[in-house]
Amino acid sequence: MSEDLYCCVTLDLENDWYFEQSGYDHLTLQYLDDFIQLIQEVDVPLSVFVVGKTIEKFPHKIDQLKKDLDTEFHLHSYQHDVEKNYDFRSEIRRGKTAFCDHFGRNPIGYRAPQGNIEPDEIRILEEEGFLFDSSIFPSYRPGIYNNVTKPRQLYIPEQVNELIEIPIGTTGARIPTSQSYFKLLGGPLIEYLSISNLPNVLVYNLHLQDLYRTDSYERLSTQKRMIFERNLPNSKNIFKRIIKKIDQRGYEFCRMSNVLNQGVTQSLTRGKI
After folding, report:
1. Cβ of 145: how many Cβ atoms within 10 Å?
2. CA dist., res. 25 & res. 144, Å (int)
3. Segments making up each domain of the chain, as ranges
4. Is the separation of the CB atoms in 256 and 201 below 8 Å?
5. What is the mean pLDDT of each run of 10 residues along the chain (273 residues)?
6. At the top level of CATH, which class does the domain 6-271 belong to?
7. pTM
8. DSSP states of 162-183 as a string?
């Protein structure tokens, strides 16, 4: 390769659609065996950002992922409260406790629910011992974030000394390289992936609910359900096509922690969160 290209496939492991009512809690975990088979089939390492509450409720599922796949784990908040009705440092510490109780070590990486993270929160992450964050979508999502001016490559946020931001991948048109977007937009976006300007470190994001339909879908609003059900029966095949196209672009698949050790983090520029 003329330049070092790395792709990290990441799974946000959480309660699908945040429903905790009896009969709707973590329904997609029933498909974990199938998901493991899918990742084994495409033969790529996996980085999992897991919610602290999910670790506490389903430790055996976490152990199954760890046992059956080339997997590493990072933190995805403690309770995945998208309304952010919490003190951030307290939320992080609760998540760290759940993580450490299970894995016997503190997490080094973090991803905020819905990619919604504030500058002061980045500073707290470094103070709490995190080495990298992977929350920023350098894109636009109405009502959630507007990051169209944020770097698409790795950078050090100006609020911290050493913590590295590893943004979610985006195409040249700043469409996130996330399963939900490829599922929604289908063939044209998949083909665009072959020619688009992509970052050297490409982070691909997916959720179990991007691949599997459960009764939780019935609790979504009509508009949201229509969006997320689009191409859902073909979602696994879409994922396989995307992995193949990324491989054809010359990317080496690796885990998030490997990125920190590949030299691509040297001489990083500073940027705003």
Report:
1. 19
2. 24
3. 6-271
4. no
5. 82 86 87 98 98 97 96 97 91 98 98 94 98 97 90 95 97 97 96 96 98 91 93 97 98 96 65 68
6. alpha beta
7. 0.94
8. S-EE-PPPB-TT--B-BHHHHH
